[in-house]
Structure formats: C-alpha cells, structure tokens
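Here's what a typical entry looks like (DUF2619 domain-containing protein):
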Amino acid sequence: MLNKIVMGMVALRLISGTIEIIAALIMARLNQVDKALLVNAGLAFVGPMILLATTTLGLVGLADKLSWNKLAWILLGIGCIFVGVLKK
C-alpha cells in the first residue's frame, strides 16, 4: 500500500502531465503560432505551481526526519529554481 503523501505527489504529477498533453493537443488544433504561444504561457504558470505543491507534500512527509538546516537548504534550492524560471 502506498503512502498517502506519495499518492498525493503522484496525483499532482499525473494532473500536470495531463494538462501538458491537453495543452499540446490544443496547440495542434489551433495551428497558429500566436495562439500556441498563449497556451504555452499558461503552462509556464502551471509548472512551477505543481513543482511547489509536490515539493511541499514531500517536505510534509519528511518533516520529522529533516533538520532545520537541511530544510533551509531545500527551501533555498526551491527559491533558486523560482528565481531562475520567473526572472527575465
């Protein structure tokens, strides 16, 4: 039997993958670069949110096993990812 935290992480990733596939199908159906770019821009918002939610679930599952020092390093790493993705 899988852990509830792991099942939540799996569900979020399956939802994310489904959104990506649907977006690709929409882009193909629209068949216009400008509209496909708008769909892609929407995905740029969804991806980091799924990353944050999945990481949060994982950290909740590990909370009793992590020291404050390790937790700070993880949060710093996540912050670096968001700065790299969202900064222009």
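The chain has a mean pLDDT of 89.

More examples are in the samples folder.
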